[in-house]
Amino acid sequence: MIYNVVFFSLAGAIGLANAALTKRVTCPDGVHSTSNAACCALFPLVDALNADLFDGGECGEEVHESLRLVFHDAIGFSPTKGGGGADGSIMVFSDVETTFPANNGIDDIVGVQKQFMADHNVTISPGDFIQLAGAVGTANCPGAPRLKFFLGRPPPKAASPPGLIPEPQDTVTSILDRFGEVGFSPDEVVALLASHSIAAADHVDETIPGSPFDSTPGVFDAQFFVEVQLRGTSFPGTGGNLGESESPLKGEIRLQSDQALARDSRTACHWQSFVGNQAQMQSEFQAAMIKLSTLGQDRSKLVDCSDVIPVPPPLVGQPHLPAGLKQDDIEQACATAPFPALTAEPGMAL
Ligand code: HEM
User: Fold this and answer.
1) Ligand 1 center–CA 164 separation, angstroms
2) What is the mean pLDDT of residues 246-257?
3) Terminal-residue alpha carbon distance, the chain
4) Ligand 1, closest atom to CA 204?
5) Matching Gene3D superfamilies, A to Z (predicted)?
6) Pairing state of beta strands 244-245 and 150-151?
7) Does residue 148 line the site of ligand 1, with CB under 6 A?
8) How far is Cα 332 from Cα 316, in angstroms, rounded to an integer?
9) CA 139: distance to chain centroid?
10) Residue whose CA lies nearest to ligand 1 atom number 27
11) Where are the alpha helices (DSSP H) in 53-185?
12) What is the dihedral of CA 290, 40, 87, 155, to 10 degrees?
């Protein structure tokens, strides 16, 4: 049955969540409909995020930083050491958490998002806001899956403990153990790293801020998985930085952790499986992001507001070898299947 909602308060509507689950609700604006009345208030917020935070709907720096923030808030959770997970503690207790070495540079987007919340009188919790911004922003990237969004995280109680966020100089074992502690398999870790397809680094080599991890940082594609598997030949900037490996292209930066995960027997086959399989990469990223975005939360108390997230534009381009490079430049690491055959872009090597 379809019914109109004339007026509701967000908190009250969350209470109606379960009763309304199977019904479509036409929102008071008469334009949008959703599966739950609690979600109606989010539509104007989604528009404001795109207009005022994401430069009119781009897949640019603020989107990339917001997606990184999703991870750094959520992973602050451990069954033994504590932390509230995806609870917004990185924003509310930013004086503590932004000092963690793994959070280098995250104060930028924390500050921008705090200001946005104040300017727009945002009433959802900081934990919800961080996840909403990440999902809305990712939807601006061609080729991205439509991420799910759940509403209703309570305010954080405390800062997360230090030492829970993986760093690029960590070993594969330590990275897989950290993710494993909070329920992610090695395959899911690889899936989450599709995020590095829309990513750049400002602080790995401070002399070259904004250096992308692949040649298509504005597109959610498998190009990241191709380019990290290419033989590294030089450092794009100064070299010798903590957590950096040589990259195959001028201007491109490679994390030591990405280099190692692409070549480790526990993760290499899954890594290459995304090349030429955009649908699998999208669906596994979407599924792993549901887990990440609700870490430390009681999912039964959250309302599924996924239908407020815009539908991302389709993929542009296909995985390829950068100009001048050959299939031989791929460092084959998976023992059971060859790296997918790719054609090279026309032109000279960079
Ligand atoms: C092995 C685990 C991971 C490590 C060691 C790692 C490390 C890093 C580092 C060092 C940077 C560069 C930061 C800077 O210098 O500005 C970065 C950027 C980024 N990371 Fe990760 N990351 C990991 C996993 C993830 C996950 C799971 C996500 C999201 C689901 C994510 C999303 C991003 C994004 C979007 C950026 C780009 C930020 C920007 O362009 O400003 N990362 N990561």
Assistant:
1) 14
2) 98
3) 59
4) 15
5) 1.10.520.10, Peroxidase, domain 2
6) unpaired
7) no
8) 26
9) 11
10) 192
11) 61-74, 89-92, 94-97, 107-119, 126-138, 172-181
12) -160
In angstroms, the CA 245 to CA 260 distance is 9
Show the tokens assigned to 272.
């290459």
Predicted TM-score (pTM) of the model is 0.94
Q: Any idea which residue has 């904004």 for tokens? A: 210
- The string of pLDDT tens digits covering residues 28-81 is 999 999 999 999 999 999 999 999 999 999 999 999 999 999 999 999 999 999
Evaluate whether 50 touches 63 at the Cβ level (below 8 Å). no
Report whether residue 105 contacts ligand 1, using a CB cutoff of 6 Å.
yes
Confidence of residue 347 (pLDDT cuts 50, 70, 90): confident
The pLDDT-based confidence of 24 (bands split at 50, 70, 90) is confident
Return the closest-CA partner of residue 85 out of 13, 35, 154.
154
Supply the pLDDT for residue 247.
98
Buried b (16+ CB within 10 A) or exposed e, 139-173: bbbbbbbbbbbbbbbeebeebbbbebbbbbebebe
Is the confidence at residue 251, as pLDDT, over 80?
Answer: yes
252 pocket-lining for ligand 1 (C-beta < 6 Å): no
Say how many Å lie between the CA of residue 19 and the centre of ligand 1.
Answer: 39
**Region at 252 (left for phi over 0; alpha for psi -120 to 50; beta for the rest):** beta
What is the 7 CA–ligand 1 centroid distance (Å)?
A: 41
Single-letter amino acid, residue 27? C
Amino acid, res. 48: A
Q: What share of the chain is helix, strand, coil (3-state, %, to 5)?
A: 40, 10, 50
Is the distance from the beta carbon of residue 201 to the nearest atom of ligand 1 less than 6 Å? Answer: yes
